[in-house]
Amino acid sequence: MGKTKRNPFFDNSLLLFSIVIFFWIITTIDQNTPDWNFTLNYGIKARDLDGLLGIFIAPFLHVNYQHLIGNTLPFLALGGLVLLSGRGRFIFTSILSGVISGLGIWIFAKEGTVHVGSSILIFSYLGFLLMQAWFTRSLKWCLVALIASIFYGALILTLLYQKNGISWHGHFFGFITGIISAILVTPTPAKKKRKAMIKV
């Protein structure tokens, strides 16, 4: 008997919801065990050597349920759209975003501030989708970018100002990292095609 072909939609959905369930488990533990205080102890602490560990942990942490609820749907929606380009690109973009954005926060954010939240990844996915459409100019990716812009394009406006309690640096570096990721993983033929279009 031949192997049963796996359903990419099912696999991608399982990956996304598994990550979100992990978000909720961590937040639930954090909210019910104050002595652990994951957010304060494992977030990215700007220019604090102890805070470097937070680069790898902060995207999974949320201050409270309100913070988590606000990030859950955008993470599922934009993460799902990025997965349309392949699981490898999704994982690469997520890891690159966590590392580069985390370093950006650690270096440039106000000293002593603690930054957490999956919005780092959310802004990265948005930047990736917009840049992927720009490079490929394919109908599929333009439609995907349009959908992302209609529902979440307003997020870009938050990059124009800073607000207390919101990690502007996380949003900014996340968005920039998403753009960088799209540039790195866009197929070479698409890049050549884009360059040719510019020259014409």
Classification by helices and strands: mainly alpha
Looking at the overall shape, the CATH architecture is Up-down Bundle
Element pattern in H and E:
HHEHHHEHHHH
> Helix segment count?
9
Total strands: the figure is: 2
- Can you list the strand order of the major beta sheet? 1-2
Poorly predicted sequence stretches spanning 5 or more consecutive residues: none
Break the fold down into its secondary structure elements and pairings.
Elements: H1 8-32, H2 38-42, E1 44-45, H3 54-57, H4 65-83, H5 87-108, E2 114-115, H6 119-136, H7 139-152, H8 168-185, H9 188-199
Antiparallel strand pairs: 1-2
Helix pairs in contact: 1-4, 4-6, 5-6, 5-8, 6-7, 6-8
Description:
The protein has 200 residues and is mainly alpha-helical. The protein has a single domain, classed as Rhomboid-like fold (Up-down Bundle), CATH 1.20.1540. The protein is built from nine helices and two strands; from the N terminus they run ααβαααβαααα. It has a two-stranded antiparallel ribbon with strand order 1-2.
